[in-house]
Amino acid sequence: GAVVSQHPSWVICKSGTSVKIECRSLDFQATTMFWYRQFPKQSLMLMATSNEGSKATYEQGVEKDKFLINHASLTLSTLTVTSAHPEDSSFYICSGGGGNTDTQYFGPGTRLTVL
Amino acid sequence: DAKTTQPPSMDCAEGRAANLPCNHSTISGNEYVYWYRQIHSQGPQYIIHGLKNNETNEMASLIITEDRKSSTLILPHATLRDTAVYYCIVRVGAGSYQLTFGKGTKLSVIP
After folding, report:
1. How many helices (H) and strands (E) does chain A have?
2. What is the DSSP letter of A87?
3. Cβ of A103 and B34 within 8 Å?
4. Rg, chain A, Cα only
5. The predicted structure's pLDDT at residue A1
6. What residues have CB less than 8 Å from A113, skipping those under 6 apart?
7. Angle at the Cα of A34 from the Cα atoms of A29 and A40, rounded to 5 degrees
8. Do A102 and B49 touch (CB under 8 A)?
9. Distance from CA of B40 to the nearest CA of A (A)
10. What's the average model confidence in pLDDT over A92-102?
C-alpha cells in the first residue's frame, strides 16, 4: 500500500508553546488529508479534513484557531498545535486519500506530551 | 455513513484462521466495506475493502454476504503480529471521504 510519513514521531513540549507536526504522502498524491486524534484506550476521532490549496474543514468541537492546518501541496500537510496545554496531550494521526486512490493511508502517528 | 457492529474482543490460536465478523445492516448501495487494523501505538493499517464480491489479497480475505448486511474478515494463518484492534468501516468508495472509526474488535493471537 501507499506510504504516509509523519514527523516527529514523538514530541514533549512545555505548556504554552506551539508544536508543528508534518504529514507527507511519499508515493502518491493526496488531494485530501485528514487529521485524527486518539486518547488512551479510545478510538480515533476525526479533527479536520483538508483539501490541497483550500481551508480545512474542522469537526464540531475542534478549535480551528488552536489547531492550524495547512495543506499547501499534494504531498504535505501540517498541523500546528498553538499554545499547547496538558489536555492537548494525545496521539495525532494523519491520513491521505483522494487522487487515484479509493482508500486512505495512515501515517504512523505523533505522540504529543505537553508538560 | 452506515453504522457497523463488531464484537469487542476475540481470541485466536496462533496458526489458526481468525474470522472477524461485522454487521452493517443499514449499508447503502454505493458504500464499500473497509477493514483497517491498529497495532498498539501505531497508525491504522489498511487491510482490504470490497463492495459486494469477495476479495482476497496478501493479507486477508473479505467475505460479504449476498444481502451485504454483514461481512467477515479472514486472516488465514494468524501470527502473534496480527494482535491488534480491527476496524470495520462502511463508506463510499472514494479516498477523499472521511472514515468514521468505531470501537473495533481487539484480536488477541495466543501462542
Report:
1. 0, 11
2. G
3. yes
4. 13
5. 67
6. A10, A11, A12, A13, A89
7. 135
8. yes
9. 10
10. 82
